[in-house]
Structures are given as C-alpha cells and as structure tokens.
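Is this the right way to post structure tokens for a design question? Let me know if I should format differently. Anyway, here goes:
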C-alpha cells in the first residue's frame, strides 16, 4: 500500500477505538523527517490569509488587505469578532486552501497522496465509512488571540464524512492553548487533545469540537494540515 504514513503504524489497531468513540489520535503518524519537512514548509514558505466569522459570514482577509484597513476599521472588526465569539459563534485563524494548482511541491505531493486510492481506502477500512473519494486540504496557523469556537463539521453539500488534523508544531506546551476539545451535547467537555507534533487527529464530522484560545504567552504558532475526507 502506497501511503505517506509511518510504516511502523498499524492503523487496524485503532478500528475498535474509532468504532466506539467516533474519533482517534495516532502518534508518529508520518516518518519523522517527513513531518519535519512539512513543518518547515508551513513555517517558512507560506503566507496565511486571516479567516474570521463575523455576523454569520465567513470572511477571508489577506495580510495586505488587513494592513490597508484603517485603525478604526480594525477595531470594529475585532469588536464584532469577539462579540460573536462570546455567543459561541466564531473563529479566527490563518489558512490557505490547497488544490491541484498548489505551487509548493512538498505540500502538493502530500495533498495528492491523501487523495490517492490507497489512503482513501485505508481511511474507509479504518473508520467503516465506505466509498470515500476525495480529501480536501488547508494549511493552518493559529497565533496568540486566535481560536475556533464549538461547532460540527457537517456540510452536506460537500459530502464531508471525516475530519482530519495533522499536527505539526514541535514541542507544544498545553498551557499555550490551541487544544482540540470535544464536547457532549450539553456543552460539557468530553476530551481535550494537545496538538503534539506528528500526531493525527481523526474524527467524524458529527463530533462537536473547538480549538481553544491561543494564549498571549504562546512561544510559537500552532501549525497543522487539516481537511475532510468525504464522498461526492
């Protein structure tokens, strides 16, 4: 089987856990050197747009567009962002969508691999979700002050079935924030996962989850490659 995953990892061992919980976390998912190269790509070669949710709309602002805003416009945007987030509806983080036209060869090859038949079949076998035929991808960066409030990833129009996160931040300290949290329907926390380097988080899109606020004292950005496996 031709996948980018660590050959020492037997994904079949995680099938029962996924069947029971609808989510798994797999450490050392990629060969270490490959994960290090992906981290280098994200930390050195990418420019991230600012993705925000304001008044029910998803807004993407480039660094140049943000810089061009007047101070008062920035203050108003920030106020609305915080006001919405306080009501449990909001996000703020850096992202870049990856497509077949991606110019970075390393990231494009990873995107191509995830969309390959071997990976899609492996994900179907692992999770019991059959006939997966695509993987979307975005590279993401969270810096202090950014967050993702509670939500589900269900988007029927896209046929999303599974959400994935390849965590690519070395030596992450849990006190810095940026934790992937899962919730029960009543809002109580069920699990909280630190974004340890070279760890895969995989879960069904029906899981309620968030990314906790990145604290002002976080020493580095939180980088990851994320997206969805689905059926179209």
């Amino acid at each position: 089987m031709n996948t980018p995953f660590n050959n020492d990892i037997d994904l079949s061992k995680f099938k029962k856990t996924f069947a029971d919980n609808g989510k798994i976390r797999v450490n050392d998912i990629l060969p270490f050197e490959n994960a290090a190269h992906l981290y280098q790509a994200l930390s050195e070669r990418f420019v991230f747009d600012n993705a925000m949710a304001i008044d029910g709309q998803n807004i993407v602002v480039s660094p140049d567009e943000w810089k061009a805003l007047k101070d008062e416009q920035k203050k108003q945007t920030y106020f609305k962002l915080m006001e919405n987030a306080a009501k449990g509806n909001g996000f703020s983080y850096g992202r870049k969508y990856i497509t077949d036209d991606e110019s970075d060869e390393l990231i494009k090859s990873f995107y191509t691999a995830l969309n390959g038949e071997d990976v899609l079949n492996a994900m179907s076998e692992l999770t019991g979700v059959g006939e997966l035929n695509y993987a979307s991808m975005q590279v993401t960066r969270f810096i202090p002050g950014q967050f993702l409030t509670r939500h589900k990833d269900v988007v029927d129009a896209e046929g999303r079935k599974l959400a994935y996160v390849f965590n690519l931040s070395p030596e992450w300290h849990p006190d810095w924030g940026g934790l992937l949290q899962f919730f029960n329907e009543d809002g109580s926390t069920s699990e909280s996962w630190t974004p340890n380097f070279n760890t895969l988080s995989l879960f069904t899109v029906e899981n309620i989850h968030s990314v906790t606020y990145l604290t002002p004292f976080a020493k580095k950005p939180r980088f990851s490659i994320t997206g969805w496996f689905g059926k179209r």
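Format looks fine. Someone answered above. Worth noting: Residues 11-45+105-230 form a domain with the Jelly Rolls fold (CATH 2.60.120.620). Helices lie at 15-21, 32-44, 63-68, 71-86, 105-114, 117-127.
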